[in-house]
Design brief:
By secondary structure, the chain is mainly β. 0% of the residues lie in helices and 54% in strands. It starts with a strand and ends with a strand.
């Protein structure tokens, strides 16, 4: 079992930056991959980025060049640095962790970007 807690969501103006954190209840060095997703009401949850245990990262085309994902295993935390935010980035952001054959979700943090 892994509990995930997201934080860092806020209201920000377009062009601004935020850093989201996803803190796990166990060492992230034992977690295969941790990803960030986002969702708006009435829409499907959308993959944003993920980072493997090896440190390899991938980002969705919609955020590439603006968002970056990183992990600090000493703090059991994965970060999503979001720059040049746009109103369409508004969503609840969730982190997801894969451990073996299981995956776990946090409860999300709200990001609102005003135009």
């Amino acid at each position: 079992q892994v509990q995930l807690v997201e934080s860092g969501g806020d209201l920000v103006q377009a062009g601004g930056s935020l850093r989201l954190s996803c803190t796990a209840s166990r060492s992230t060095s034992n977690v295969n991959t941790i990803g960030w997703y986002r969702q708006n009401p009435g829409k499907e949850r959308e993959w944003v980025a993920h980072i493997a245990r090896s440190g390899v990262t991938r980002e969705a085309d919609s955020v590439k060049g603006r968002f970056s994902i990183s992990r600090d295993n000493a703090k059991n935390t994965v970060y999503l640095q979001m720059n040049s935010l746009k109103p369409e980035d508004t969503a609840v952001y969730y982190c997801r962790a894969w451990v073996g054959a299981s995956d776990y979700w946090g409860k999300g943090t709200q990001v609102t970007v005003s135009s």
